[in-house]
Design goal:
mainly alpha; 7 helices; about 85% helix
């Protein structure tokens, strides 16, 4: 009898812990959504881009994009050449050479490059920016927000969010163009003779529906990278001992959203 009561109490304790964890999970996402909406209002406000705020925003855009643009483009170019070679050789060996370019565009431009750009910027820029926000939060830099003053958001948080978002979009766009050029040169060589067929191949891949899905996917990845890590550390307790935990939770949330975006993109593209 005592054993049965103990097991029941243990089961209820486990269920209560699961319920509290679920409520905390939903509360965390609710705060992130509200935080994102507030930043969106500030991003659409013309006053955000005037005076000192414009200088700070420009500085973050350059610092978060310029140092990694060349290296990321070189890295994706090398990887793209390897994948292009594998796809083309495999297609030729199976007598499917006319589908080689279409497969390259689908694999690289539609799927791998936006995802790689998002992960690269998240590790290189978004997480360090989140750590900086955590330090500022611990110092009390955002205490004025409780009084309705949006100045700290404009000066410290919005530039970091916008720079992370812009970096993902720019890296994905530049790398996609470079990949498309490399694929053409690898298959047709330095000649314009295959440009017409290559353009038709791109037209078949990038139908209006697929173009919309690709645009929404890339924009969603960029916004997730810019917003989630910073929002996670902003709403966690501003204590030094919790800084690592809040950053880790932000990374887990980011991976979760990226996974959802990828699943939605695959469903929209191929179902």
């Amino acid at each position: 009898m005592i054993t049965t009561m103990t097991s029941h109490a243990s089961a209820w304790s486990v269920l209560a812990d699961m319920g509290r964890a679920a409520l905390q999970w939903f509360a965390g996402w609710r705060r992130i959504v509200m935080f994102s909406a507030r930043l969106l209002v500030l991003a659409l406000s013309p006053s955000t881009y005037r005076g000192p705020n414009r200088v700070i925003l420009s500085q973050h855009l350059v610092e978060d994009t310029a140092p990694i643009l060349l290296w990321f483009t070189l890295m994706t170019s090398i990887v793209s050449l390897v994948i292009i070679h594998i796809v083309v050789v495999t297609s030729v060996s199976y007598g499917l050479s006319r589908y080689a370019l279409e497969m390259v565009v689908r694999v690289l431009v539609l799927e791998l490059i936006p995802l790689t750009a998002a992960m690269f910027v998240a590790l290189r820029c978004a997480l360090p920016s989140a750590a900086e926000v955590a330090v500022l939060h611990a110092r009390g830099e955002f205490d004025a927000l409780s009084a309705g003053n949006a100045g700290p958001l404009r000066r410290e948080i919005l530039p970091r969010v916008l720079s992370g978002t812009f970096s993902v979009l720019l890296l994905a766009a530049v790398s996609s163009v470079v990949c498309a050029v490399l694929a053409y040169l690898w298959v047709h060589g330095p000649t314009l003779g295959g440009l017409a067929s290559y353009t038709r191949t791109f037209g078949r891949v990038f139908s209006p529906a697929l173009t919309l899905i690709f645009t929404l996917k890339t924009l969603g990845l960029a916004l997730a990278v810019g917003l989630i890590p910073i929002a996670s550390v902003f709403y966690d307790p501003a204590k030094p001992r919790l800084r690592t935990g809040s950053e880790l939770r932000g990374l887990v949330r980011l991976f979760f959203v990226i996974l959802l975006i990828e699943i939605g993109s695959l469903v929209g593209n191929y179902l």
